[in-house]
């Protein structure tokens, strides 16, 4: 059993719009982009902090917004971006659920391994 002691489960949460025909989901990647926008006030800075091109970040945000049917960011050109009220609530819910599921999975994994 000692070879299992260093292992831990990983949970991959995603939020979807069941009415959307798009494959876009709100998952870890877009959540990290949104967290970066919350911290920096800029989608460009958030993307750069993740090693991602701004154009790719912009496409991810637009695709996710279209799939979910909500606007995540308010964009103000050269003045940066902020999360919308809906974007803030969705991000907060995602982070809280993700944390809880990860904690529960780790506890259950440890319990099962004994």
TrEMBL record:
This is ModE family transcriptional regulator. Pfam families: HTH_1. It comes from the Bacteria. GO terms for molecular function: DNA-binding transcription factor activity. InterPro entries: LysR_HTH_N, Molybdate_resp_trans_reg, WH-like_DNA-bd_sf, WH_DNA-bd_sf.
């Amino acid at each position: 059993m000692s070879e299992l002691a260093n292992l831990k489960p990983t949970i991959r949460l995603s939020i979807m719009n069941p009415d959307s025909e798009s494959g876009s989901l709100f998952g870890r990647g877009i959540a990290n982009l949104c967290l970066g926008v919350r911290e920096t006030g800029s989608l460009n800075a958030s993307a750069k902090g993740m090693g991602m091109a701004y154009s790719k970040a912009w496409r991810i945000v637009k695709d996710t917004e279209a799939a979910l049917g909500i606007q995540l960011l308010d964009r103000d050109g050269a003045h940066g971006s902020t999360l919308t009220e809906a974007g803030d609530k969705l991000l907060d819910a995602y982070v809280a659920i993700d944390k809880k599921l990860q904690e529960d999975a780790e506890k259950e994994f440890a319990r099962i391994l004994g």
